[in-house]
Amino acid sequence: MISAPTPEPAPRDAPSRSGDGSAGAGQGAGPAAGRGKADRDRPATPVGRPVAALLLVSLFVVALLPRTIGLGGAVTEDEDQWIDRSGTFARALLDGEWRRTFLTGHPGVTVMWLTTAALGPTRAASYGEAARPPTPPGGPVLISGKVPVTTMPDFLSTIHRARIAFVVVNAALAALVGLLAARVFGLGPGVLGGLLLALDPYWAGVSPIVGMDGPLAGFTSAALLCLILACRRLILARPTRILVRPARRHGAASTATGRLALDRGALAWVALAGALWGLAFLTKTTALFLAPLVPLLALAALLLPAARRWRRSRRLRRSAERAPATGATGQLHPEALPSAGGPLPRSLAASVLGTALVTLAWGVVGIVASVLLWPAAWDQPLLTLWRTVDFSARLGGEPHGPGNVFLGRPTDTPGPMFYPVALAFRLGPATTLGLMALLLFGAPRRLGFAAWSLLGYVALFLLLLTLAAKKVDRYLLPILPSLDVLAGVGWWACVRWLAGRRAGWRRGRATGGAPGQVPERATGQPFERANGGASLTTGMRSGPAPVGLALTGLALVGLQAWPLAVAGRYPLATYNPLFGGARSAERAIPLGWGDGLDVAADRVRDLSGGAPVTISIWYPLWVNFQAHAPGPVVTERRLADADYYIDYVHARQRGLTPRQLANRRPDAVVQIAGVDYARIYRLR
User: What predicted TM-score, i.e. pTM, was given to this entire model?
Assistant: First the structure.
């Protein structure tokens, strides 16, 4: 750990005092006064190893249940591409051709590793481009000239097997993030936040999908929390000491000297954060959005103790200058106090150097992890990383290829309000209420640095997403776990406030006062509230009664699972019911990622009596829909050759329904959460 400069040790005849330093010598300040400032950055409740193990297993089980719902759902638009890429990746591994493991600049390396491991290299390689037969005459034409991967034998069983691996990994990441949240915020807020993120409707819906977004959310969130834990070690590395020199002895004040010290615990957390970030980068280059936050948090953590010391020194100097020079023993003398103008600049210089070292350590570990796990980087490390970053910069600068929809209007440029609106619909209801509670009650002061760090990450991520031309609602996934954790802190603060009100009401009755009136007492706790005298941080160590905490947890589980129950077997179709659910979302943002197309294929079979028929569908869906269709599939451009047309909600929102079908009543409809996801029309 790199610590900011600290004052030199006080001479033997000038006793030092650790703590907030607000009480001069001889004023009877006890040890509790010294602990007040030091404790406010520490976790509220230590998490021991048995408790941590129990919490990790419990959160994994809770997270696993909702993620299994979408295992048998329809193939999404991107899953066929990742099965294809994973096949080529596996073949390159078997042949030892490392350069061929660069398939896309996303780069999705963890996706391809996980899919290859789940299927086995040989089976995965059979779905690669080189292993598939060429397109027969009259068949669907791809750029590669090979048949679509969705038409390969046993494709549905293959993707189901791959999805199981993604469910397990995403559930494990959710449990890990919940455990880290408990380390950062304490056991009570960590448990509540862990339940929220384990049951987060959108993350649960995306988790079974063979793709980048689910693992990216877990890796980035875990990396951020590890970084916050490292910063906490930076803040608490060395106790602050205020020099108190007896007034009868006038001497020159000690001078602060810059010093760098390494703390293994902080370095371990920095290294773990870097390794997790490396995995996030290998998943998707959006993880680069976390990079600017690393030096900012490290600098803030290194400067915070010096800034507190400087403020206390200035306050003590002013008190000493105003006090009469009585010459009494223990009187603070202005010359014996650290200079109010000196320590902070010297601390700034050392903190900047420390920040550079922390950022360098984080970046080196992240890059090394990326290179070690990407075979293409073994051969050409610099070129591989450059191609990845360049691809992402170009892709983010272009609007979404199929177009977009915002507030009922088809558009290629939804504008800066797209993500705030999409976020409102993608948040879980319990998360929404928890964030409102956090706004109302505020985070306990001891948790301020961690809470502001998460909020800073969310704000920075939203800003960078908004600046990009390509806008898709699932790109919000990396910030959802952070918001779930913050909502858990909000719920905890609310429970603590209610517990304080109840205790105040009981004490008021016992003392004969008005209900809710609490006798004045010196708690030494920040964020003291006037109404009832209940502090939001009073009892943060002990927390509310276990029964109250359990009831709160059950309420959160019910609220957070509400949209999952509405969406049924299609958790991707979950939208915040507090804002109107899927019906309101249909009028605001794009809906559908292939949800319900498996049922649509069954409806076509029923309508055709089981006979093979040709089906037309909007072009982004024509490859993945072939995994379910009872016959050939063509795009909407070949509508005249089709027997049926499926009007999917994603296309209908863009006004792409064929004109000849605009006023026709569909022959069958597939509804999810009250929205017509697929309308089926018989053409002949």
Answer: 0.82
Angstrom distance (rounded) from CA 405 to CA 123: 39
Would residue 229 count as lying in a domain?
Answer: yes
Do the strands 675-682 and 644-648 form a parallel or antiparallel pair, or are they unpaired? antiparallel
Q: Is residue 641 part of a domain?
A: yes
d(CA 434, CA 494): 9
Q: Are residues 527 and 625 in the same domain?
A: no
Q: What is the pLDDT of residue 347?
A: 63
Q: Mean pLDDT for the chain?
A: 80
The region that residue 350 occupies, defined by phi over 0 for left and psi between -120 and 50 for alpha, beta otherwise, is alpha
C-alpha span between 201 and 431 (Å, rounded):
10
Q: Is the pLDDT of residue 163 over 90?
A: yes
Q: How many domains does the chain have?
A: 4
Q: What is the dihedral of CA 597, 598, 604, 610, to 10 degrees?
A: 160
Between CA 36 and CA 44, with CA 38 as vertex, the angle to 5 degrees is 80
Nearest to 45 by CA among 150, 187, 167, 149: 187
Which pairs from 288-293 meet CB under 8 Å and 24+ separation? Answer: 288/389, 288/392, 289/460, 289/461, 289/464, 289/465, 289/478, 290/220, 290/223, 290/224, 290/457, 291/363, 292/460, 293/224, 293/227, 293/453, 293/456, 293/457, 293/460
What's the pLDDT score for residue 232?
Answer: 85
Q: Which residues contact 366 (CB under 8 A, 6 or more apart)?
A: 274, 275, 277, 278, 281
Would you give the end-to-end CA distance of the chain in angstroms?
Answer: 73
The pLDDT of 303-309, averaged and rounded, is 73
Residue 374 placed within a domain? yes
* Domain termination site, one of 541, 576, 611: 576
Q: Which domain holds residue 631?
A: 597-682
**Polymer length of the chain:** 684
> Degrees (nearest 5) of the Cα angle 5, 8, 10?
145
